[in-house]
Amino acid sequence: MPPSTSHPPAKPPDSPVDDADSDSDLEIDLEELDPQPVREAERSKTKSLLGKTRDPAEQQTPRIALRTLRMGGLRRGAKRNGYGELGRGHAGGDEDTDSLLRDGGGSNPRYSDASAGGEDEAPLLSEHGRSSSKRRPSLAGGSFRRVGLRLPSFMSGGTADRRGQDDEFGKEEDDPSSSRLVAVGSSQSTRFPPNIISNAKYTAWSFLPVTLYNEFSFFFNMYFLLVALSQVIPALRIGYLSTYVAPLAFVLVITLGKEAYDDIERRRRDNEANSEEYTVLQFDEPGKGARGVRPKKNMRSNHARKGSKRYAPERDRLSDIQEEEEQTEADGPRQRPSWIVSEVSKKSRDLKVGDVLKLSKGHRVPADVIILKCLSNDPAAHKLEQEGPSQEESLLLDHAAEAGESSSVLKSPVEDGAAEGGSNGETFIRTDQLDGETDWKLRLASPLSQNLATEDLVRLRVTGGKPDKKVTEFVGTLELLPSRQDAMSTAAFSQDDGVSKAAPLSIDHTAWANTVIASHATTLAVIVYTGPQTRSALSTSPSRSKTGLLEYEINSLTKILCFLTLALSIVLVALEGFNNTKGNIWYVKIMRFLVLFSTIVPISLRVNLDMGKSVYSWFIQRDPGMPGAVVRTSTIPEDLGRIEYLLSDKTGTLTQNEMEMRKIHVGTVSYANDAMDEVSAYVRQGFHLPPSANNQALATPSTSHSSAANAGATRTRREIGSRVRDVVLALALCHNVTPTTEEDEDGRMVNSYQASSPDEIAIVRWTESVGLRLAYRDRKSIVVESTETGRTVVKVRILDIFPFTSEGKRMGIIVQFYERLQPGVPGIGSGEIWFYQKGADTVMGSIVAANDWLDEETANMAREGLRTLVVGRKRLSAAEYQEFSVKYQEASLTISGRESGMQAVVSRYLEHDLELLGVTGVKDKLQKDVKPSLELLRNAGIKIWMLTGDKVETARCVAVSSKLVARGQYIHTVAKLRRKDAAQENLDLLRSKTDACLLIDGESLSMYLTHYRTEFISVAVLLPAVVACRCSPTQKAEVAKLIKEYTKKRVCCIGDGGNDVSMIQAADVGVGIVGKEGRQASLAADFSITQFHHLTKLLVWHGRNSYKRSAKLAQFVIHRGLIIAVCQTMYSIALKFEPEGLYKDWLMVGYATVYTAAPVLSLVLDKDVDENLANLYPELYKELTSGRSLSYRTFFVWVFVSIYQGCLIQGLSQVLTEVDGPRMVAVSYTVLVLNELLMVAIEITTWHWVMVLSIVGTFLMFVGSIPFLGGYFDLGFLLTVGFYWRVAAIGAMSLIPTYAAKVIQRTMKPPSYRKVQGI
């Protein structure tokens, strides 16, 4: 054991520092000083942290416990290239640097305090540590600084050297035009926007102007406004002014009311999200706590709590030493304010920039934050911490004692990324609501803030860039300043004052809004961007008002009717002649005719359609087959029946994001489903350890423990058993999973797993199900136990880890097996060393040894929609590992080409001729009934695109497993496209293969959208399926807009995450899925459902009904207005072209309302087929997309019917009674009303009791109102037989030919729904 070294005590962080070489980067908590006595021989003259030379007699301070060296910026590099590319020692290197690095990796998080690294390593303060920096200043000033290491000042060369580099760094980062300063836990000098989520379309000021503009942008609304205004002029007035103003006002009130209701509902839902409660830390001076706020427990780091109990006897002596050192300063002691930290509850809308949030597992992050501290609250971790201090020291000292084997124990602190995110400043977040990626992301607290007491967080200041929508980039700085006032100021501070410190911030230190904390650790984070300035909001398009395709079609038909009205008015005036006489001016007559014929353009059309939309919405929301469905935009339900392109998200929409291990292949045999029991039997046999003294023996890959169960097995069976045992062991070790313990709903402690990828967790769960449970894991070791006996069967020491990257598509681990359960760490030569690796078959095929089954088996699994991983291993001798370690360490310290150099070393020494162990198949569970739903939608003529932010391989697997891609269909993959000529080649190939599926990544998609926009979309829309992966939210929205612009077809987008909001809002119809991942997509959507398979019912059933009903309703309302206009025309002709009204005042109003409105509106209950037929024959839906239900053809058929019936009714009424008089009006009006009621009955396909009631009730209402119509009718004539036979004759001649023509057409050319009904 090396001798202990004495060290001076720490000073307060804001104390002045005179010595430039003092260790300003180390923060040592006095409570962590070890009370052990120090050897007299080591009490030599040293410099204290305050920079004063002290006598050995004064140096009788206890030695500092060994702790982890926390280096800022190290994690970023380690995450990319392995756990310890900079934390590993190397044989033959500078021994002091080697010692530094070894100690830096020496801490074992199994026994570390939950507050993580509030202390630093003792050896870092030794004399030889300082001397090494003088011998090799280039090491600290060159390689380490280039990669972002925050080293202690004793490794920084000289003061001038360090100052120059810091100034250089400052110049690069200090850009006032693109930065913001955020004082942590304090009020800000700059005003920032409030943290409010808003999906509302209108404000109180914009509602009326915007809605009125939208309403009068429709031609017929503007037309009726002009008609109503014309009645102000006496010469143009016909009847009551209210006859024309009231219908328009009624339409506007109904429409504006519906828009207001929809927007109020959106605001109510936004208010729910904005009212979510969060815990915020409040920093108050003693005696100045916030009034009216109930303070909660003070936030103190765990090591402070524990230290106060453990080291209480040392407090007085240490305080005396500190005071003595402060008194030696020329300017006297500086008082450090002691802030009281309390917890207050704030609503999401009240959060401000600078607030420090306390977040726990499952919390949605309400704004863009920088992570400051991660405090572990895992019960298992606390238990281990309490049990292990003594063992920790022995392990660490054993590590330090291995002089020639240092490289084997050197690791960067990053790898405990799996370690629960607690005491080492690490946490996991889920970003699937932001970017669609299913993997959990490792996030880090900067060592500068992680090692700081919670009450000192107010001394921190964050510098960040301007708000940006790039969710994968962030550059900032974290500064520790002398006081809270300094942090709140905007002045720049130099690190040379010995008190101020700075650390770089990157994307690894952030958590953007709408991500979710996935770790059990408590995370403290400061808000830097709020509300509209968050990444999520900037990636989201603003809400827009949506108008259905049917509205535009009706608008076009209205223009035709208006032209018809104008032409008819001019013709009637022309037939009389354009002669002006007194009181008879020709253009005034034209204007009066326009007012008389205004019923041709039916104002009631909007009322009826809007009321119909409300009925459709009511049906959708109360459909028992779609529980939880919500209609948020009630203006476009008809568009549900016209969808031709469906753009779907993957994660949470098509899949559940729950992985399951489905299949494993070991070369000669494959196991799946029930066959997994056989795997369990092999595992029990393979890891059956014979009883030994204290059960200390452990299994290694080379051990072969035979049991009675397999003693008589055949050789082939033994070989298979050995293979199964090897592949299960490899899967149990080669991962980044950490076991954790958490409370379930019943308060019981249950074991769970935590990792950055759901695939990893699925595999580890599978190994547990077959007999090997991951019991413990930290940066240094993995312990695996038998699920049958609970006994530890495998324990390994982690030597190196090579994490998974999207470029490498593989992850590897080098482990050394323990042969027995023993304290301490085995030497390099005392245990087997193995390299395990797993990865995608595309990269592993060239790494594993030659074989004849890998390609075939991976292809088979891919066809089943499984995500395949190839597993291999290689044994290393101690010498081989030592050689690799030295080369790898050298490569990790190079300045240029570091990543490629490190990968080259791995490839040369490890990644070749691996023994192929097996292939695993993992499946992402699909949402319920996704396969039949996609098939039904395809048969309905809808082309489906899948847009996801996930990886290419994942997207391909889900496309196959969900049957989005048919079995055997060619998938053309376009990835990492950077050259224009290659882009053109791919387009040419796709033109020749229009039956292929296109799989394209975001980078390639961006090139096409930039350079080949039209060419790309012209080819893509012809393909049966397109899968776009690695898509940003803006790319998804751009694709939706491009399809709309190019095809002029209706596009529906469906998603469940915040990253889908832009796409949903850009679509003609946006559908949001309400799931466990949040409500943001459903809040922004037009329709909200709870399951993907509900979409089929929404489109095929409700969409069909809404469109068919509205089309029939619109045409019937046009017919109703046109027929009365034809009657008016016939009357005017009979009066020698005089613009006199036929039906005046109440007769006009009553005809459009009480006498025909209810029966016509009852058509919204009609249905041509039942739901079962609509689902059985989805091809019926394909007919709707052509728009035949409301086309120019059907429109002109109805115009012809209206002209025929109008001429017949008015002409015969005048012929059979009189040209002008109450008798003619009575006959004409009565036939007109009865004609409309019977026409409704003829058009009904499926009767509903409401239809019968409305028709019969309206007829009775008309009969009952006749006695009150004496001002218009000859009531005496109504009591004669002559009235009735005239009404019957005229009505029969009007209706019988119309009905006969319809029957003949249905017989000769029946519609499709009639055909399927007859099957």
From TrEMBL:
Q: How does it sit in the membrane?
A: Multi-pass membrane protein
Q: Where is the composition biased (Pro residues)?
A: 1-15
Question: Residue spans with biased composition (Basic residues)?
Answer: 291-309
Magnesium among keywords? yes
Q: Where is the composition biased (Polar residues)?
A: 693-709
Q: Which family does it belong to?
A: Belongs to the cation transport ATPase (P-type) (TC 3.A.3) family. Type IV subfamily.
Annotated protein name in UniProt: Phospholipid-transporting ATPase
**From which organism does this entry originate?**
Achaetomium macrosporum
